[in-house]
């Protein structure tokens, strides 16, 4: 099945295709992700949500940075931009502001979005740029072999914290909330249905929307942190998670041995950056006309 | 709507001329971060864009600015940023991405003294080599250097045209004394400004390969949202835009990225030659230094010295054929620069021992005077 056959509006043969295959560049399979990785299920939830909301595939833009998760933009049959480490958000901002009718999404790893790209994240929240940002947080740098991330829980092991991590991690929903995002949620890649619903809800909104997806990395995180089996992290997520919609984001920090709070935390209305830009243009135009 | 092209005669600072040149070239997206001595470009554009429907964003840093102008270009806008040395250093990351993804865009560098924070308010030409290879990997770039507000206006338009034609980030390598000096700028009528737009695909989406070049080595460019399912990456990629990290694909892709510039040198390279017909001495200069050179050559000619001037308007790719040609006649090349010898190295390499090459360096901070260059001409003419 070549991806070209799925382009355009040709009917698909149900017996040959999984309903989601039309979103895939099938000729690029197999993908690089390991067994048990949470990135694939996250993307599955995303495309299902796009389908549910009924967004035209030709209008979907997928921007990613660098990392295991960053590779996703090359696997889906939409406009895909695999950019530089940390810079997916400003790159996507450029696209969205020029073509406001497009559905622009950033899907990338926690190192990408919160370490090297942290500054862009908070400023895009503050500006309320019209983007959906999904971060697959696997608590580690997957692509480069398991180094410390800005999301690694205290005490955890990585290849650069061989004696255990001493740095407190970011509480990313709180960061997004405090910086001005209009939608903030946290799910895990195990909670595919709820994640899909949350993404669909976010897709229907405007402004800066952020969803953190806790995502197993059995290979580079689990193995070093007593979550050795492929589904150990999934089990941890399943057993420890508590759904609390509207939770105060100050209280959702992830700590080992404590419940993981999931849910749709923040939903607020605010004119998006593009909306403000257009308002400004109007103001300038009116002032110019008054002068005449 | 406000007027886009301000046809007429103006008295503008170089930085304003650059901003207006960009607007006249069709630039409608600007992403930047304030820095002396380039800020006036952003300030002027922030005032003009809301009048003409352009999008101006002051980003959180130059990393974001550079990334955003690439994104904007992929969405179909002509885009630009403007900075100075410290900012250019940060932009190098995504300038490389622009080279690899083949994104038309323009980066203005109003040079100031370096290294590091250096001389924020004073002039220099220290970023010539950084403009060429400041980002990692083997690539070719186009950079132009203006010597006056009028040339700043004209060359900004040319930067956009070259960027669009060759699908590359193009650098306008100006400097503080050009950005901050005022001069007469004539803006032609809109219909007399020749503009080039990037090639668009002529095939339907199912036949489109985003990195399959035409004979001119340049692939047509689809925009985001047009149904072409663009796949693009900073990784080494094949014609489909898919990552393919093999030596063979690297060879093919990177060779083409270089060749699409190298094989069009004749079209890209622009120099101004004066008094060269019988010259035994040639002064090679660029940007602001060309102005004192002009005076110095005139003074020396009055003394009967056979000296001419070669002004490089295109800095990169280097005008190697021009230097090689004149090296057959000229016995000595003088290269005055506001650095410790950057273009001098290029000249010397092309002269290849056929003539002598003399550097007149200044580390920046102030211009070289006509008298200083004249004295140098006098000195070498006695050899
Ligand atoms: C500027 C730069 N620095 C470092 C790297 C190396 N690098 C590649 S991916 C990565 C981290 C990936 O971690 P994350 O963003 O969490 O994504 P994951 O692989 O876990 O999905 C790093 C440091 C790079 N590509 N670019
Ligand atoms: S290393 Fe981790 S994040 Fe990367 S593909 Fe494997 S499981 Fe996923």
What report would you give on this structure?
The complex is a heterodimer of chains A (292) and B (383). By secondary structure, chain A is an alpha/beta fold. Chain A has a single domain, classed as 3-Layer(aba) Sandwich (Rossmann fold), CATH 3.40.50. Chain A contains 8 helices and 8 strands; from the N terminus they run αββαβααβαβαβαββα. Chain A has helices at residues 39-53, 88-98, 110-116, 118-127, 172-179, 192-203, 232-240, 273-291; strands at residues 60-64, 79-82, 103-109, 132-137, 183-188, 209-214, 241-243, 260-267. In chain A, helix 1 crosses helix 6 (192-203) and helix 3 (110-116) packs across helix 4 (118-127). Chain A is globular and about 75 Å long. With 383 residues, chain B is an alpha/beta fold. Chain B has 2 domains: 8-192, Rossmann fold, CATH 3.40.50.970; 272-381, Rossmann fold. In chain B, 38% of the residues lie in helices and 22% in strands. Chain B has helices spanning 14-25, 39-52, 62-74, 85-101, 128-133, 149-166, 176-179, 247-262, 265-268, 290-302, 320-327, 343-351, 370-381, and strands at 8-13, 27-32, 55-58, 78-83, 105-113, 119-123, 142-144, 169-175, 182-187, 231-233, 271-274, 281-286, 307-312, 314-316, 332-337, 356-361. In chain B, strands 2, 3, 4, 5, 6, 7, 8 and 14 form an 8-stranded mixed β-sheet that branches. In chain B, strands 11-13-12-15-16 form a 5-stranded mixed β-sheet, with helices on both faces. In chain B, a hairpin with a 5-residue loop joins strand 5 and strand 6. In chain B, helix 1 (14-25) packs parallel to helix 6 (149-166), helix 3 (62-74) packs parallel to helix 4 and helix 10 (290-302) crosses helix 13. The radius of gyration of chain B is 21 Å and the shape is globular. At the A-B interface, strand 2, helix 2, helix 4 and helix 8 of A face strand 2, helix 3, helix 4 and strand 10 of B. The site of thiamine diphosphate (TPP) has 15 residues of chain A, from helix 3.
């Amino acid at each position: 099945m070549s991806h070209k056959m799925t382009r355009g509006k040709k009917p698909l043969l149900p017996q040959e295709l999984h309903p989601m295959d039309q979103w895939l560049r099938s000729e690029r399979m197999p993908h690089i992700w390991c067994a048990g990785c949470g990135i694939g299920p996250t993307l599955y939830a995303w495309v299902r949500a796009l389908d549910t909301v009924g967004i035209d595939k030709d209008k979907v833009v997928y921007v990613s940075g660098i990392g295991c998760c960053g590779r996703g933009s090359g696997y889906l049959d939409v406009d895909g931009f695999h950019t530089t480490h940390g810079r997916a958000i400003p790159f996507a901002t450029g696209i969205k502001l020029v073509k406001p009718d497009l559905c622009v999404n950033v899907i990338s790893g926690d190192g990408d979005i919160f370490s090297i790209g942290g500054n862009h994240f908070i400023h895009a929240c503050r500006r309320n740029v019209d983007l959906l940002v999904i971060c697959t947080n696997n608590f580690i740098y997957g692509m480069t072999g398991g180094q410390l991330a800005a999301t690694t829980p205290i005490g955890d092991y990585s290849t650069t914290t061989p004696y255990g991590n001493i740095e407190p991690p970011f509480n990313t929903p709180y960061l997004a909330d405090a910086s001005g995002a209009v939608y903030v949620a946290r799910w895990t890649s195990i909670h595919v249905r709820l994640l899909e619903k949350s993404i669909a809800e976010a897709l229907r909104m405007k402004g800066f929307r952020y969803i953190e997806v806790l995502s197993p990395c059995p290979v580079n995180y689990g193995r070093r942190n007593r979550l050795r089996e492929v589904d150990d992290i999934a089990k941890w997520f399943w057993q420890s998670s508590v759904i609390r919609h509207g939770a105060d984001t100050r209280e959702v920090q992830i700590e080992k041995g404590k419940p993981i709070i999931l849910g749709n935390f923040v939903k607020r209305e605010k004119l998006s950056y593009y909306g403000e830009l257009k308002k400004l243009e109007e103001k300038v135009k009116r002032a110019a006309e008054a002068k005449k | 709507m406000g007027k886009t092209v301000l046809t007429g005669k103006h008295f503008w600072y170089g930085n304003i001329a650059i901003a207006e040149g960009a607007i006249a070239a069709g630039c409608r997206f600007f992403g930047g971060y304030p820095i002396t001595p380039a800020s006036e470009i952003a300030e002027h554009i922030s005032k003009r864009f809301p009048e003409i429907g352009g999008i101006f964003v002051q980003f959180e840093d130059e990393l974001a600015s550079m990334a955003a102008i690439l994104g904007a270009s992929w969405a179909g806008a002509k885009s630009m940023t403007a900075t100075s040395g410290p900012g250019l250093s940060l932009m190098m990351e995504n300038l490389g991405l622009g080279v690899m993804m083949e994104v038309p865009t323009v980066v203005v560098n109003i040079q100031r003294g370096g290294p590091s924070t250096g001389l924020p308010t004073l002039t220099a030409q220290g970023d010539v080599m950084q403009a060429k290879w400041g980002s990692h990997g083997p690539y070719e770039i186009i950079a132009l250097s203006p010597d006056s507000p009028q040339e700043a206006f004209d060359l900004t338009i040319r930067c956009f045209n070259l960027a669009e034609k060759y699908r590359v980030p193009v650098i306008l390598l100006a400097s503080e004394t050009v950005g901050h000096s005022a001069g007469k700028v004539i803006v032609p009528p809109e219909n007399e400004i020749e503009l080039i737009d990037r090639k668009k695909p002529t095939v339907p989406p199912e036949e489109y390969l985003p990195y399959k070049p035409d004979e001119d080595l340049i692939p047509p460019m689809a925009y985001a949202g047009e149904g072409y399912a663009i796949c693009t990456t900073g990784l080494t990629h094949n014609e489909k835009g898919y990552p393919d990290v093999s030596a063979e694909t690297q060879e093919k892709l990177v060779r083409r990225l270089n060749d699409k510039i190298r094989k069009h040198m004749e079209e890209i390279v622009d120099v101004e030659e004066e008094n060269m017909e019988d010259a035994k001495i040639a002064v090679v200069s660029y940007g602001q230094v060309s102005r004192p050179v002009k005076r110095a050559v005139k003074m020396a000619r009055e003394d009967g010295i056979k000296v001419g001037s070669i002004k490089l308007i295109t800095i990169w790719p280097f005008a190697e054929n021009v230097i090689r040609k004149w090296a057959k006649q000229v016995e000595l090349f003088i290269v005055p620069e506001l650095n410790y010898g950057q273009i001098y190295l290029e000249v010397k390499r092309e002269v290849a021992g056929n003539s002598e090459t003399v550097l007149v360096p200044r580390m920046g901070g102030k211009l070289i005077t006509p008298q200083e260059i004249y004295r140098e001409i006098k000195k070498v003419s006695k050899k």
